[in-house]
Design brief:
Isochorismatase family protein; Isochorismatase-like_sf; Rossmann fold; 6-stranded parallel sheet; alpha/beta; 6 strands; hydrolase; about 190 residues
């Protein structure tokens, strides 16, 4: 679905742009993704639209076939990258599951600010971004995904999310398209 509009109360959700995650081997050049995330974050701030910065610092309980590695990670692993230039007005969320809404105050924060739409960017496309988009859709938010401002550990997983999943959860577009729409509706 092509981009149509941004609601008057649209928030940006930035997923896991943190020191430990951006160092992982990803499908696309991470520096370019970070540049786009910074660009869209600055645009939202310029228009006084809510910005939510999410990091992951732990794992959900329960068994799975992946070894749990959280105990041997560097101390700064969960810190957001300095390029984001965290502002006092940014809402911070630390999650311990894939999706940013589970066991956090994200939904309550967005509701307090009258948010009806979210734009989601970050890493990993098929994990944190997709899970958060699914949850946002299930909670009734209009969802927009800046597909050039996200990255994944696996190119096939990224493509699957972008082509098969995101189009069922909301609208997709480029960072530039979303910024232009933001300027025309919030300018």
């Amino acid at each position: 679905m092509a981009l149509t509009t941004l609601d008057p109360k649209t928030a940006l959700i930035v997923i896991d742009i943190q020191k430990g995650i951006v160092q992982l081997p990803c499908a696309y050049p991470m520096a370019e993704v970070i540049d786009r995330v910074v660009e869209i974050t600055q645009a939202f701030r310029k228009h006084n639209a809510p910005v939510v910065l999410v990091n992951v610092a732990g794992v959900a309980p329960g068994r799975n076939e992946q070894p749990k590695r959280m105990g041997d990670l560097p101390a700064d692993w969960a810190e957001l990258v300095p390029e984001l230039e965290v502002q006092a007005s940014d809402h911070r969320v630390t999650k311990r599951t894939w999706g940013a809404f589970t066991h956090t105050n994200l939904h309550e924060h967005l509701q307090e600010h009258g948010v009806t739409q979210v734009v989601i960017v970050g890493v990993a496309t098929s994990i944190g971004v997709e899970s958060t988009a699914r949850q946002a859709s299930e909670l009734g938010y209009n969802v927009t995904l800046a597909i050039d401002a996200m990255n994944d550990l696996n190119a096939e997983a990224h493509t699957n999310s972008v082509t098969r999943i995101f189009t069922r959860l909301g609208e997709t577009g480029s960072t530039a398209e979303i910024i232009a729409l933001l300027a025309s509706t919030h300018g």
